[in-house]
Amino acid sequence: MRDQRLEETVGTLLRVGVITAAVTVLAGGLWSLAVAGPAPVSYRHFQPAVRNLHALRQLPAPQALILAGLLVLIATPVARVVFSLVAFAAEHDRVYVICTLIVLIVLLYSIGTAWL
Fold first, then answer.
1. Cβ neighbours, 10 Å, residue 115
2. Are the C-beta atoms of 16 and 80 separated by less than 8 Å?
3. In whole angstroms, what is the distance from residue 27 CA to residue 61 CA?
4. Is pLDDT above 80 for 15?
5. How far apart, in whole angstroms, are the C-alpha atoms of residue 104 and residue 85?
6. Which long-range contacts (CB under 8 A, 24 or more apart) does 91-94 make?
7. Mean pLDDT across the stretch 38-45?
8. Which residue, 90, 92, 73, is CA-closest to 16?
């Protein structure tokens, strides 16, 4: 894959991921406002943090949609690294494959340990 085509594809991937995440979060936010209205938020009852994907089912649908948008936003750079890894492997560029693999491992490790 040519360098310019790789850059264009990665740029498109990042743009689509960020726009998708923004639209999803915006839709969830508007839905949440439509459901709750201008009612003040009650901070008397503690809401524990969502620690895994199964806990998303316990949230109200608008909040789950907002969190899904944030997950798309987090997954976008990871997808970019995976795409770059595949592109470098197709070009048989070992140095960049190793560097990109290290970056991917660090990303997955940091995301994985955040769920513990």
1. 9
2. no
3. 11
4. yes
5. 9
6. 91/1
7. 74
8. 73
Domains identified in the chain, total number: 1
CA–CA dist 49, 64 (Å, integer): 12
DSSP track, 5-63: HHHHHHHHHHHHHHHHHHHHHHHHHHHHHHHHTTPPPP-SS--PPP-SGGGGGGS-HHH
Residue 75 C-alpha from the chain's centroid: 3
Give the integer Cα–Cα distance in Å for 81 and 10. 9
Residue 37's pLDDT is 75
Range of the domain at 95: 3-42+52-114
Q: 47 lies in a domain? A: no
Six token digits for residue 50: 């969502």
Is the whole model's pTM more than 0.70, yes or no? Answer: yes
Hey, what are 21's tokens? Answer: 């995440």
Phi, psi of 82 (to 5 degrees): -65, -45
Average pLDDT over residues 12-26: 95
